[in-house]
Each structure stands twice: as structure tokens, then as C-alpha cells.
Amino acid sequence: MTVLYSQITQKDSLRDIVTGLSAHATRWYHLGLTGVYKSTLSDANAKRDYRIFEDLFYHLLSRCRNLTPKHKFRFKNPLYTIDATTIDLCLSVFPWAKFRTTKGAIKLHCLYDHSGALPTFLTVTDGKKHDVRVVKDHGFPLSPDSIVSIDKAYIDYKWLNSLNVKGVWFVTRAKTNIDYVVVGQHPITGKGVLSDECISLQGPLTKTKYAKELRLIKYYDEEKNKMLTFLTNNFKLAATTIVQIYKSRWQIELFFKWIKQNLKIKSFLGTSKNAVLTQIWVAMCYYLLLTYIKYQTKYGFSLLQLSRVIRETLFERKALIDILTMNPDRLKVRQEEPLQRVLF
Question: Could you list the residue range(s) of the whole structural domain that residue 22 is in?
């Protein structure tokens, strides 16, 4: 509860947490707290297993998934994106997170569900771990007939073949040195589509790792004035839909940007690996709590606005529905309960 409190109120240290909660000590009755002490929090950060909060994250996720809206595309297949973001750490303070000679870092790897903007699978590794190695080692949970978009860093034909065997559709950018022969043509339809080909890989190693045919789409992007080449094992969807699926990958970048800007996952309350992972998993639990409240109550404003409202009204004795229906423009000028009577 104290780490969650630090996420909501953006506290920077254990002492900040203790001071902030102590100021509201008379309102602890519903939380079961009997006292908050810096030494106790420090011990918990070091010794309480972060996997408790990892398990809590997936429990909360199961509650959220049935509430979220579907993705914007017409097809009914589940749509995912896999990507990773680096969280920089000071090597002298976090020596266990060595990334380069003078730099520390960890990586947050995410399977992002476009239905509801939910992180459905997360794992944290050291900064040196290659992205494709992580997905091969951890077996990201992708159901048959789902579609996953990935960037070129994840091109490993053996892994892509395993997705194809499972019935998972993938969409990615083709590497510039791809070795292939054209074995068929699709009708060229859609603005910007230059070619739509059925290909077979020809590299001496790649053709043994991925022996089946693939689809190669060349597309001219007017906005960027650039030709893009896409690779997929899906032969059913229109070429422009394949292009838009890959472009929707940008949503996971916005997700990473949001959590870095609005959750406490760049500065940490402890220096041990357990403390860092605890804070990251609690932060992601808070993200799911915000998501749950937003979709369960049909909150009409953004997730950022919701987090601000909750932060400003956290210890107020108001019904949640009254807080959520408060106009954000009036939040700053809302009337507090008169305090003058306290003096008499």
C-alpha cells in the first residue's frame, strides 16, 4: 500500500512516503495500517519478494480484460505488439545492472494488447539482453489466429517459423539484405502499394529455418517520402491493412512514453534489484487499476486526467463516482470543507 501510495502521489523517497502518510494518519482506518516507518519500508524493499506483486499484476489483468474496448481494425483477430524499452540506471548506485562500462540499465519487455491498451505480458531483464532472445526464452503467450507486429530487431526466422506453426500471424519490416525469389503475385490494390509478392527465402541458413512462403509488400509512404518493405505470413488481409497493422506499432511507444512520464519507474525508492522490480511491478499494477476504473465507470476523460484526479482527491471522504464525475476544469477550484470550525 505504501509503494502504491508513492506511485499515486509521486513521492521520491521513503522519507517522503512516511511524512505524507503521517499527515493523513487519522484516515488510515480503512487501510489497516498501524504505523509507517522508514526502516520497515527499507527492509521490505530488500526482503519482500517482488514476485508477489508480479502475481498481483496478472490477477488484476484478468479483471481488466473483459472490460476493455476492441481494437480499431475490422478483423476480429486479437492484435498485439511486442517491443522493449530501456530504463537507465546509475551504475555506481545500481552495480548489479551493468549495461556498459560506465552505464547501468534494465529492459522492460512487453506484449501489448491493442484492445484496451493493456500490457498483457511483462518481463524485466538486464540491459544487454537481446530482444529476440527474450521472446524465445520466455515464450510470450500468443494465442492461435492472433496477429503480432514486431520491428526488425525481432527477425529470427526460426522464431518466426515457430509462430507460423502455432497459427500466429506476424507483421514486420523486411531487412534490406533479405535474400529471396518471387514465386507468385498478389493483385496490387490500395493507395501507396507498389508491389505485393509471394516469396521464398533463399539464404543457405534462412531457408532451412523458414521453408514456407512469405508475403513481401512494398509501400510508398507519402508522409515520410520513403519506401517501406513489409514481411508477413498473412496472405488474407489487404496489403494496406498489413501496412496499418505495422503502423499501429506506434501505440506501444506511446505506452512506454506514458508510463515513464507518469509512473515512478525512472527513480527508485531502493537500490537493490528486488526494490527496483517491486517498484516496477507496483507501478504496472497501478496502471491496471487506472484502466479498470476508467472502463468500469466509463470515465470520459484520459487516463492521465484520471490519475491527476485520484492524486488530488486520494484522502478525501468522497464517493468515487462523485470524484469521477467532477469536471477536470473545476478540479483546481473545487471547494474544500470549511476548516474554521476546527478552531472553536
Answer: 1-150+256-316
159 and 141 belong to one structural domain: no
CA distances 205 to 151, 155, 158, 198, 202, Å, are 21, 14, 10, 20, 8
Same domain, 34 and 143: yes
- State the Cα–Cα distance between residues 123 and 138, nearest whole angstrom: 8
165 with 96, same domain: the answer is no
Write the CA distances from 7 to 1, 11, 39, 304, integer angstroms: 10, 7, 19, 13
Instruction: Determine the length of the chain.
Output: 344
pTM, whole model, 2 decimals?
0.89
pLDDT at 333: 52
Residue-wise DSSP of 268-324: -S-SSHHHHHHHHHHHHHHHHHHHHHHHHTT--S-HHHHHHHHHHHTTS---HHHHH
DSSP string, 133-182: HHHHHHT----TT-EEE--GGG--HHHHHHHHHHT-EEEEEPPTT--EEE
121 and 266 co-located in one domain: yes
> Is residue 215 included in any domain, yes or no?
yes
**260-282: pLDDT as tens digits:** 999 988 889 999 999 999 999 99
Calculate the alpha carbon distances from 285 to 18, 56, 166, 292, 322 in Å: 21, 7, 30, 10, 24
3-class DSSP assignment, residue 130: coil
Structural domains in the chain (count): 2
Question: Are 23 and 141 found together in one domain?
Answer: yes
Q: Where do we find the cell 494496406?
A: 240
Measured CA to CA, the distance from residue 189 to residue 153 in angstroms comes to 29
Residue bearing cell 488484476? 60
